Amino acid sequence: MPCERKPMRYGHSEGHTEVCFDDQGKFIVTCGNDGDVRIWESLDDDDPKFITVGEKAYSLALKNNKLVTASSNNTVQIHTFPDGDPDGILTRFTTNATHVAFNSSGSRVAAGSSDFMVKVVEVSDSSQQKTLRGHEAPVLSVTFDPKDDFLASSSCDGSVVVWNIEEQAQVISWPLLQKTNDVSNAKSLCRLAWQPGAGKFLAVPVDTKVQLYERGSWDHVSTLSDDLLTQPINVVAWSPCGQFLAAGSVGGSLTVWDVNSKLSVERQRHEKGFTVCGLAWHPSAGQIAYTDTEGCLGLLDGLSTSTPDSNATKVTRDAPS
To answer: Is Repeat included in the keywords of this UniProt record (predicted)?
Structure first.
């Protein structure tokens, strides 16, 4: 699956930077430490439109022409997309939110915060909120089960938790990560990702590997690894078909696995070896956009994501050891 690594573009000031595509894949959207959201028509866009959302922007999510951001004034805001008009505050925390994510339909947003809380908010009526309490340190990431029954979160307390959203209760908690007191000190952002479609697998980056857990049984069923990965994986993202998983790591490794075969099908390196902290798969084309901790944006182009059998559920279970 040889792909082309496009030259990096300067996008934001130095610091944590995130990226996503819009639903149609027409725009690449980034946010960063300068408090701006930039809307790129392509990687070659020399004058991307920008929206200032705060002093710093920690995270963004985009669905149904609604742009959600976590900014340094402890709020989660909505702006219209691509116009960038303010459309209200979804929720507030007592300190900054660290990660935001939409559910698959765009009707709900989840946000995790440095105040240990996870909130699930209805986009159409932000007074409809559920608060998931139980983490004992700042939240690193949140991801919805595509069927909208569960939410998974990772935290500086060392745990990855699956929650029943309606019951606001923990279903299971795995002690997988190194404990730390703050997101800035965490070895990895541990950005979880639930497989699209049936949501059979939850992908959890743990050190230099990705662990796959099965929805429902919550069994650990598979490990994705690559001998060339020597530093912690920060973020993972599924291909829209659910058959491939991409990972970006501290030190700039970019790896793509075929989840069925568990083989690495693409290996790339950040051109300067900077840490990859944002990753997004184009909704239809074979492209992955990624961002680094220096505020730059890159693109892998020409990824082959079509296979004769795109049945995304055929991951073989690891034999009991």
So the answer is: yes
